[in-house]
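Core-binding (CB) domain-containing protein (Candidatus Thiodiazotropha endolucinida), 70 aa
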Amino acid sequence: MGKEPRLLDRVRAAIRTKHYSIRTEQAYADCIRRFILFHNKRHPVEMGKAEIEAFLTHLAVNRNVAPSTS
């Protein structure tokens, strides 16, 4: 039996089934990658609300991303 696809491969497949643009796919994959790296490469399935809030706070405070953007 084959190995289960990696997280970002599954995300890309799901985005493609919705016919989003390649730029949107790249932006979503990049954001997910940054979220994972921010949390020291923990898998998102291990995280919850607190980690999401910490990442969004990091974006707003340290990366000057507007709350409506993040």
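The chain has a mean pLDDT of 91. The radius of gyration is 14 Å. ok done for today
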